[in-house]
Amino acid sequence: MAYKKIKPQNFTEEELREIWKTEYCNAPIVTFDGVSVKFYEDKFDHLFYESEYRKLKDKSILSYNRLEKIYWIKDTLQDVTAILKKGWDTENKEYFKNRRLAIVKGNYVVIIRFTGKLKASIVTAYEKEDISNILNAPDFEKTDEFFDV
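Above: the chain's sequence. Below: its structure in token form.
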């Protein structure tokens, strides 16, 4: 996979939003295993802004670190070597049945939520220093609810 980085400081926010719209929102991205993932323009803020104070979750700072990897989301979803894990539901203290985490490059994580058979939408993408909790999660398993198994 390419895993190309950009220099977001060389773009205006409007240009970065246009990359997001063109690359992701105009047509679904199909994963390596045939899942059609939908992206929405309003997810830009969630994916590419960070919170000054993590506990507040204010998403007030445009993140150049996240934006330099804007193309990595697609690459991760299409990477057959990605590690696939189940997502943790903090509220209910159990693993989601409809979330899949794909991990590449040691600590880059992309989360999708299944909405139907071979259909999903983006939840988030981020880099995390310590992903041991994610790596210790159960492997994602294909079920007939979301795949033709």
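The mean pLDDT is 94.
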